[in-house]
Amino acid sequence: MVPAQDEALGVRAHEMTPVLRVGLLCDLPEEGWPSMDLVADRLEHHLRVEHPSVAVTRLCPPFVPRVGRFFGAARGTVQPIADRLMNRHVDYPRWLRREAIERRFDLFHVVDHSYAHLVRDLPAERSLVTCHDLDAFRGVLDPLAYARPLPLRVLAGRSLAGLRAAAAVVCDSHAVRDELLLHRVVPAGRVTVVPLGAHPSRSAKPDPGADMQATALLGAPAVGTPELLHVGSTIPRKRIDRLLEVFARVLDRVPRARLVRVGGALTAPQRARAGRLGIDHRITTLPFLDQPVLSAVYRRAALAVLTSDAEGFGLPVIEALASGTPVVATDLPVLREVGGSCVSYCRAGDLEHWVATVTNLLREREQDPARWLMRQETGVLHAVGFSWGAFATEMVRLYRVLGRSAGSAAADLAAPHGDDGT
Asked: SS3 helix, strand, coil % of the chain, rounded to 5?
């Protein structure tokens, strides 16, 4: 077949492919969950640029301040919890109903499982939810182990009911999928796994503009002053207490080490712990950063450290590796799934193991440059396998399955992966 005929057939095939109108239901930005905003941003970008057969529209109502108005909460900052709950559970569903959203789209994708209650106001057979972890539901699934106030359990139960009703659930990792199935939240045939990606700015190659901005925030990198980097929030499962204890002991062996934390200020108890440990003067805290600047901060770090007790994916692991920064992380199944053999793993409560692992790696960095370079290059190559483009492509496949037949979609979801549902 001649090229002109190939091109003509391709055009006709494209014209025959029906355009799917997909509503992307996103978090309220005022809630301050950067990782959820990132998922929505990257998915929307790749759908628009690479998948013309999908017409994506970002859905999110305006935030209505109530309590925050009386306490002077500034625009663009994380709003009071009462306002966040009212907007998430009352205003958002009301907006969906008022705008008759269900009539304007073929499919709906709820980007964050903690917003899964929105499925209750949408056609469930045309709704897909991304489940990043089970944290939001633990007070319902295991109330004895995870005590939660009754109002929060009720709201979590609403979201869990929405997740159960959705036609499809997408997990970031097999570890989360396995936990969903263990708790019998949804049948295996309705769940598939699609890993997240590393931001395209994550690279070991210099970016002069971003690197200069990182220097303005942190000062020029100093010889003999290795930086340990932690990226993420200060919620309990991130185990900032463990991070501080490890860093204090590392300082005993590497007195010029520095801890850089990206993700906002420490809580009052965490600051108090740092003070008691005598390490507060060696900690630099940064807010959540623009992506290129965050990439520069990753690049200049000696090590990224992830001390969490639980993760749904562990995005800092793959982002650090993509930036050429080796990682030390808690030995969790999900982090082994994401980091593979490129990451150094430590037993959760074994502080000596953590300290020995970190100090040995810092020693290798100083004394064995060839081995260190190989470690960096191996991590970069590993991270190539995690891309937002691949994430979006798999989402389009799932959208098409749901679009073909809402009734039979669940049975087809895992077919391309050879998943027998066990």
From this structure: 55, 15, 30
The phi, psi pair for 110, rounded to 5°, reads: -85, 115
- 10-197+388-417 shares its CATH topology with 208-383: yes
Query: 10-197+388-417 — its CATH code?
Result: 3.40.50.2000
Q: Is the pLDDT of residue 251 over 80?
A: yes
Strands 327-330 and 344-346: parallel
Nearest 5°: the CA angle 236, 237, 239 is 75
Which contiguous run of DSSP H or E holds residue 364?
Answer: helix 351-367
Please give the helix or strand (H or E) that residue 37 lies within, else none.
helix 34-50
Where b means 16+ CB within 10 Å and e means fewer, 162-175 reads: bbbbbbbbbbbbeb
Mean pLDDT of the chain: 90
Give how far the C-alpha of residue 196 lies from the chain's centroid of Cα atoms, to the nearest Å. 7
Q: What is the largest CA-CA distance in the chain?
A: 76
Quick: pLDDT tens for 319-355.
999 999 999 999 999 999 999 999 999 999 999 999 9
Nearest to 153 by CA among 140, 136, 170: 140
Q: Give the whole-angstrom CA distance, residue 138 versus residue 161.
A: 13
Q: What angle do CA 291, 378, 224 make, to 5 degrees?
A: 70
Architecture in CATH of 208-383: 3-Layer(aba) Sandwich (3.40)
Total-model pTM: 0.87
